[in-house]
Structures are given as C-alpha cells and as structure tokens.
Design brief:
By secondary structure, this protein is of the alpha+beta class. It has helices at about 10-40, 60-75, 85-95, 165-180, 190-200, and strands at about 80-85, 100, 105-115, 120-125, 130-140, 150-155, 160, 205-210, 210-220, 225-230. The chain has 5 helices and 10 strands, in the order ααβαββββββααβββ.
C-alpha cells in the first residue's frame, strides 16, 4: 500500500488567500460599478432642460397681456379664464431673484415646462463646484370638495428620484424660515401655495390680487398651457 499523501498546509493557506483576494476584487468592482452608475445618474442632464435666462427689468409682453386680462375681467364680476403659456411661465420664473443660495447650495438657470397633467420646474444646483440638474414635477387641481390640491409629485437630482428625502428637508427648512422671519402673512396666496406644496394639504382656492378677491374654480394642465377658471367674489 502506498503512503497516504499529506496536504501541504502552506499551499492550502495560499489558495484560500487567493480565493479571498478574488472575492474582494469582485466586490470592489461591483461597488465601483454601482458608484459609477449612481454618479452618472446624479449628473444626468434631461434632454428637455434648456434654460434661457434674460436679465432685464422689463415685463414681457406675455405677462403684460396676462395681467391685463386678470385686471379687466375681474372688474366685470363674471367668471373668466386665463391661459398661462409655457413661455409666460418661464417669464414668471425669470422674475425671481436669481441665482438663489440656501444651505451652501447655489441654484440658477431656471427652466419650466408644461406637460399634460404636470408643471415641470428645473434648475441647476451647484454644490461645492459640482453641478446637478434638479427637476420638480407639480400637479394642481380643484378636488371634489372645491379645495385646491397642489402637490409635488416627484423631485429628481439628475435621474435619481429623491422625493421623500427632499420633502422632509424642505419642510424643515420652511419651518425654520418661518421662525426666523416671523412676520410672514400666512394668508397671502404665495404663503398658502407654499404651505400646500410642502404639506400636501388642500387649501381654499381664494386669493386677493390687486385688491380683487378671486376664486379658482378649475385648473386644467395641457401640453404647453395652463388654463385657470376664475370667479370674482
């Protein structure tokens, strides 16, 4: 009978080390691949994002026309409608004080789209020298109770959906701003809309514009246009 072969302990230990090293390299490769994909998704630039910012103190013709319709029709005390085109929405957004900065993040180059059932707001956020495209999708309607629902349906950084985290952060920041400023008119239409966006609570669709009280009776979002039916009170 031949002698039973005794395994070389040194060779066996070396083989196990090689296997562990291979596994470690595989996991590192997977981690790096995932990190690269996430990074690429964060840096993703939507094809429809095309900001055109014109720095001017003049009110555009589309906004002047919109203001004229609201002012003239509200005096008649009859129901009427206004149509906010995509270009008019961009003009409204451009009236804001850009760029904006909050918590170390610089936001600039705004853009707006009106898709069927959605209002899409976009902008570039700069964080420590890195640029990300922020996309916010909004829905607006008058519900069965006659209240206005304005909801943030989606928030994305690049192509990554960050809606739950972004909503929580925005709510905290809003409460902090209220405590810091203190004298905000919570019944102004701007404050009511902001509160509705952050809390998902329906609000009374009654607003005062140019000393005229108007009630929103219907909101329709179509491709490239937002139609709002108003009733003077």
């Amino acid at each position: 009978m031949s002698k039973r072969e005794i395994p070389d302990k040194g060779t066996d230990l070396q083989n196990r080390k090689k296997k562990k090293l291979k596994k470690l390299i595989c996991w590192l490769a997977i981690d790096l691949s995932v990190a690269f994909i996430v990074f690429a998704l964060l840096l993703y630039k939507p094809s429809q994002y095309n900001p055109v910012f014109v720095e001017t103190d003049e009110i555009s013709s589309s906004l002047l026309k919109l203001y004229s319709v609201i002012h003239d029709k509200s005096q008649l005390n009859d129901p009427f409608e206004i149509v906010v085109t995509q270009d008019a929405l961009k003009d409204i957004i451009n009236l804001a004080d850009w760029p904006m900065e909050s918590e170390g993040v610089l936001l600039y180059s705004p853009d707006a789209l009106i898709d069927p059932n959605f209002i899409v707001l976009m902008g570039t956020a700069d964080f420590q020298g890195m640029e990300f495209i922020i996309t916010i999708e909004l829905q607006a309607k008058i519900n069965e109770q006659g209240l206005m629902d304005i909801n943030v349906s989606k928030i994305k950084v690049g192509a990554v959906n960050v809606t739950p985290l972004a909503k929580i952060t925005a709510q905290k920041m809003y409460k902090q701003k209220l405590e810091e400023i203190g004298d905000i008119d919570l019944y102004s239409w701007q404050a009511k809309i902001a509160a509705s966006l952050l809390t998902d609570e329906a609000i009374e669709p009654v607003f005062e514009i140019e000393n005229q009280t108007l009630k929103v009776e219907k909101i329709t979002i179509d491709e490239g246009r937002l139609t709002i039916n108003l009733l003077p009170i």
